[in-house]
Amino acid sequence: MKPLQAILFVGALFWGVAMKMGYDKLIANPETTDRQVGYATLFYYGFIALSLVGMFMLGEGALIGYLVGILFVGNYRSERRPRRS
Hints:
This protein is mostly helical. 80% of the residues lie in helices and 0% in strands. Helix 1 (3-28) packs antiparallel against helix 2 and helix 2 (34-58) packs antiparallel against helix 3 (60-76).
């Protein structure tokens, strides 16, 4: 693995974790309405698609780091939205 790919891997890992944890924090906020959650979800998944394209263009190190960050590390500390009665 080239040194640049290792740097891109770590950077993409942190980018994926930051995106996932920010989204989870927004969703877990009880003051957020369902409509806002819907818009945030659409924006979040659109931004994930654009980030995947960008990481794919940077190389396999960045792509793998991003996927690991968003799928595994980011989910480790995720909070769930409380159910409304």
